[in-house]
Design a protein that fits this description.
The complex is a heterodimer. By secondary structure, chain A is mainly alpha-helical. Helix content of chain A is 72%, strand content 0%. Chain B is an alpha+beta fold. In chain B, 31% of the residues lie in helices and 12% in strands. The chains are: A mainly alpha, B alpha+beta. Chains A and B meet through helix 1, helix 2, helix 3, helix 5 and helix 9 of A and helix 1, helix 2, helix 4 and helix 5 of B.
Chain lengths: 147, 192
């Protein structure tokens, strides 16, 4: 492989990674609905009677990797990645550092999402990209905007 | 202290402009669930005591017909709750793919910041087709299957959820015990 080609490949990986990181996560409802739609025939043929819980549907689709349609495979990867990112973001974001609260949310009474709502109202430019992305991945901004 | 690491990582900023791929917007249906679940129940019942009472009701009243059967827990219907129909495979606890979205919507609601920290009962009911004890056991397995899906893949903390099956002991329409409206799942906020 020549140098420029390798550079191009590296660049496209970098770019793909960045785009993935910037994309919003799907709501759990939208995510799993996409899976049900794209994998309808495959679920029926290969995973009949398999339970959604305990990660068993994913295990079943993985175990039948060679037999399921390309569309189902792609959707499975995308959907479970989105779900995992949202779960991780929602887990991570609730542990807010006390000094962040002091800086941005002075006087806000804790409980019933008050602090989180306050943090989400802080200007994205003030809190940095990684933090901002995690807030985006939780999906709460979108839900808030719609309510 | 994960927030510290995430939120102080300003130096990680990417060096090129991003064209964000905006995927489908979150649809609103979980908001309705979130709203219905904000009232905290004053039920005063544990999952274990409800299961026990349902089993005793069957054993103590073996001749009781389904038509007009009194509610086992009348107070259950007065609680703030969300009721949803989830389709399962016949005689099975496997949720049908057409109901995946409903389970996902419940997960969205339970992850809403306003409901974080609260615990919930997942109460499963059948219609009156089939044996009472069989229905009791089936509804328990189905309530547990929903709980399990909420935990994995949807990441709801397992300690926030308890599953209870009431079989056909709490019919929604006791005058039509075989009606599909009796097959349902109730979600009830039981507080912190």
């Amino acid at each position: 492989m020549n140098r420029s080609r390798r550079f191009f490949l590296a660049l496209s990986f970098l770019f793909a990674g960045a785009v993935t990181a910037a994309a919003q996560t799907l709501s759990y409802a939208d995510a799993i609905e996409r899976l049900a739609a794209a994998c309808r025939a495959d679920l029926d043929r290969h995973c009949k009677g398999v339970e959604l819980g305990g990660g068993r549907i994913k295990e079943c689709l993985d175990a039948n990797q060679g037999a399921i349609s390309a569309r189902c495979q792609q959707t499975r990867d995308y959907v479970y990645d989105s779900i995992a990112r949202r779960v991780a973001a929602q887990r991570n974001i609730v542990q807010i550092r006390s000094s962040d609260i002091a800086t941005y949310c002075q006087g806000v009474a804790p409980g019933d999402a008050n602090i989180l709502n306050c943090m989400m109202a802080v200007a994205p430019s003030a809190i940095g990209q990684a933090c901002n992305q995690t807030l985006t991945d939780t999906g709460w901004r979108t839900e808030r905007a719609q309510q | 202290m994960k927030f510290y690491h995430i939120c102080s990582a300003l130096a990680v900023a990417s060096s090129f402009a991003l064209t964000a791929v905006v995927v489908a917007q979150t649809r609103l249906d979980s908001a309705e669930i979130t709203n219905s679940l904000q009232g905290i129940s004053q039920l005063g019942l544990t999952a274990a005591s409800m299961r026990q009472a349902a089993l005793e009701n069957i054993r103590n009243n073996p001749g009781q017909t389904a038509v007009g059967r009194p509610l086992l827990f009348p107070q259950l219907e007065d609680q703030a709750q969300f009721t949803v129909e989830i389709d399962f495979d016949f005689n099975s606890a496997a949720i049908r793919p057409q109901s995946y979205r409903a389970v996902g919507s419940i997960a969205d609601a339970l992850h809403n910041p306003i409901l974080l920290g609260y615990k919930f009962l997942v109460v499963g009911h059948t219609d009156a087709v089939g044996g009472r004890e069989y229905n009791l056991e089936l509804s328990q397995r189905r309530a547990e299957a929903i709980r399990e899906a909420l935990v994995n893949p949807f990441g709801v903390d397992a300690s926030r959820l308890e599953a209870v099956g009431l079989g056909e002991e709490q019919l929604r329409d006791p005058l039509h015990p075989d009606a599909p409206v009796n097959r349902r799942v109730q979600l009830i906020n039981v507080g912190r």
